[in-house]
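Below is a filled-in request sheet from our internal design queue. Each sheet records the structural input a requester submitted and the sequence that came back. We keep these sheets so that new team members can see what a complete request looks like end to end.

REQUESTER: design group, bay 2
PRIORITY: normal
MODE: inverse folding
CHAIN LENGTH: 636
BACKBONE (tokenized):
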């Protein structure tokens, strides 16, 4: 294509050549019937430097075959060179030479023009004829023989090239956070989107990601994957660089005892991290307040501004320990005046243990109500039976130990001690009603009034029977009449009798069972040492075996059955053993003298079945009172 010639005929030919593309452009860009528009398009077309590369030659050069041959060869070389530079997946410069309803036609100096879908240009961004654009070669030739180009991909590749350069040079770029995804946010970097992890948005944990939507931030590329075209950016990295300088400057001025102001950056189970302006300090949970704290959120909130005290720091490890409670006086200063012994105080239950409950009198000052100081009369195994966490309790100050920071409190002291007048209320010998609360091996506990129990010893259950367990006579929950045998205010103990409601029958029994009298009764037990029979007057008789081997005793005992009737001669009455001792010749194996020896031996070796009434330790009594089930301890 030629623009200008020295000879006139050649000029006319060049104009004719120019007219052809002008006509083509006017058809493609505008409607055929609008001539003014066509003329305008032609002017635009001609105004662009479309013919900058056209050479003006003379007539002599035209008619010189050698010159023409050299020019043709040069053009062919330039054409082949252009073809060799055009490859798929490559950015190249092209010139807009035409357009239709669907496509923009680009001259890329190839054997055929390339085409780009019009949708890749905005409505207001359509290029003018002759305008140069950078395009991306998708396909050299499709099925229709067209070269397929892309402006979007060209823009992406150009932007990727800039980002790669920014990554290599550690250049700070700008980006807009357009949406939130799992783990972070998507950032718009022009034609490329990047991932901003949640942990890289700020130097402090982010609670509300939505506040960053559509916000522009300075960013630094921390990872770039060429193959996958992935980009990871960070805003935190920029902030940390600034904070490092501030941190170094702050550490040079830092001293123990400094009072600083900071913002709560993070709250954990063990404490609070405070941003001091370049340095993060740890405010441990134990240094938040003098009082008891279960979790730091009870005292501080995220982003709250606090005034704190530097209590320790390590410049090498860049660690700072802070205190909040250290800014207020120690609560134990002057505690003896605030909580004098004998005064009644009020506090909240902050801890429950098996030995008592701790009451917070004020932040940092706690007192212990021992389990023994809760009730005068009830045996309480655990304070949780009475109190719960958070309960408000009134108590009396019993003692103060400022050195060990201990205060002893009592609740029962707020009420009169019922044991102070116990001797007046339960006079020895008086009869009262009681409810059986518990049965133990050694006796039964009867409640005389709420909180006041008395013990019926097993030996005081029956005059005549040898009771081995209280359940043989009484039942739990049974209401019975009892007689007061003994009252001890000091030991807080009342001894009761059940059999004492009746007169002692043994004087009459002794008179009835005179020596030598023959009596009989039903066999109720067969033992290794003799046979027990039920006699009149609700008394038991025993016919002991004579001196013989165990084998002979078993053989002899096998001849008698429970329920059968058996008689014997009264040898002796033993009230302490609750037995009438009888003699039967075939069991004793001899005469009267042998019988006497057998009785003596029996009395000598008697194991005190009835059981002597013993003084029981208070611990054993308390244990039996609180036992919910029937216990079977060793014999007292």
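RETURNED SEQUENCE:
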């Amino acid at each position: 294509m030629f623009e200008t010639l020295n000879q006139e005929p050649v000029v006319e030919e060049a104009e004719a050549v120019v007219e052809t593309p002008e006509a083509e452009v006017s058809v493609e860009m505008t409607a055929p019937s609008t001539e003014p528009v066509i003329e305008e398009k032609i002017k635009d077309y001609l105004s662009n430097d479309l013919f900058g590369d056209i050479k003006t030659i003379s007539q002599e050069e035209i008619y010189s075959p050698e010159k023409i041959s050299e020019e043709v060869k040069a053009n062919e070389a330039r054409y082949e060179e252009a073809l060799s530079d055009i490859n798929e997946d490559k950015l190249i410069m092209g010139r807009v030479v035409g357009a239709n309803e669907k496509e923009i036609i680009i001259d890329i100096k190839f054997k055929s023009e390339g085409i780009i879908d019009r949708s890749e240009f905005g409505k207001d961004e359509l290029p003018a004829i002759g305008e140069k654009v950078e395009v991306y070669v998708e396909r050299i030739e499709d099925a229709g023989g067209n070269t397929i180009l892309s402006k979007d991909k060209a823009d992406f590749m150009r932007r990727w090239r800039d980002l790669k350069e920014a990554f290599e040079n550690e250049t700070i770029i700008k980006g807009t956070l357009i949406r939130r995804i799992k783990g972070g946010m998507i950032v718009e970097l022009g034609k490329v989107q990047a991932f901003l992890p949640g942990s890289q948005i700020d130097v402090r944990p982010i609670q509300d990601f939505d506040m960053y939507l559509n916000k522009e931030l300075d960013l630094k590329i921390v990872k770039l994957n060429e193959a996958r075209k992935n980009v990871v950016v960070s805003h935190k990295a920029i902030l940390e660089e600034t904070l490092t300088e501030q941190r170094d400057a702050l550490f040079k001025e830092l001293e123990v005892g400094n009072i600083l102001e900071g913002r709560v950056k993070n709250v954990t189970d063990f404490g609070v991290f405070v941003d001091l302006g370049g340095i993060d300090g740890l405010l441990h949970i134990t240094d938040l307040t003098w009082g008891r704290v279960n979790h730091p959120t009870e005292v501080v909130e995220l982003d709250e501004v606090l005034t704190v005290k530097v209590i320790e720091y390590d410049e090498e490890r860049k660690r700072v320990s802070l205190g909040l409670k250290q800014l207020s006086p120690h609560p134990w200063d002057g505690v003896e005046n605030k909580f004098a012994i004998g005064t009644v105080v009020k506090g909240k239950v902050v801890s429950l243990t098996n030995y008592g409950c701790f009451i917070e009198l004020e932040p940092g000052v706690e007192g212990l109500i021992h389990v023994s100081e809760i009730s005068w009369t009830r045996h309480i195994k655990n304070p949780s039976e009475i109190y719960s966490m958070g309960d408000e309790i009134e108590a009396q100050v019993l003692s103060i130990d400022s050195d060990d920071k201990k205060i002893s409190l009592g609740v029962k002291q707020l009420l009169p001690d019922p044991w102070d007048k116990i001797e007046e209320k339960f006079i020895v010998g008086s009869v009262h009603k009681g409810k059986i609360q518990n049965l133990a091996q050694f006796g039964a506990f009867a409640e005389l009034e709420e909180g006041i129990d008395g013990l019926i010893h097993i030996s005081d259950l029956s005059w005549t029977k040898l009771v081995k367990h209280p359940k043989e006579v009484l039942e739990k929950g049974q209401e019975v009449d009892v007689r007061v045998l003994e009252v001890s205010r000091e030991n807080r103990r009342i001894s009761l009798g059940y059999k004492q409601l009746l007169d002692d029958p043994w004087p009459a029994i002794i008179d009835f069972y005179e020596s030598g009298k023959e009596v009989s009764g039903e066999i109720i037990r067969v033992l290794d040492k003799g046979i027990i029979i039920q006699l009149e007057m609700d008394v038991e008789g025993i016919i002991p075996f004579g001196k013989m081997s165990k084998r002979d005793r078993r053989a002899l005992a096998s001849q008698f059955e429970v329920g059968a009737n058996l008689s014997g001669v009264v040898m002796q009455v033993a009230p302490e053993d609750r037995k009438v001792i009888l003699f039967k010749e075939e069991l004793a194996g001899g005469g009267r003298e042998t019988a006497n020896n057998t009785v003596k031996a029996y009395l000598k070796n008697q194991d005190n079945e009835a059981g002597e009434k013993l003084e029981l330790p208070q611990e054993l009594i308390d244990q039996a009172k609180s036992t919910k089930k029937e216990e079977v301890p060793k014999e007292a």
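SHEET NOTES:
- Residues 8-29 form the longest helix (22 residues).
- Confidence is low (pLDDT under 50) at residues 1-38, 607-612, 628-636.
FILED BY: M.R.
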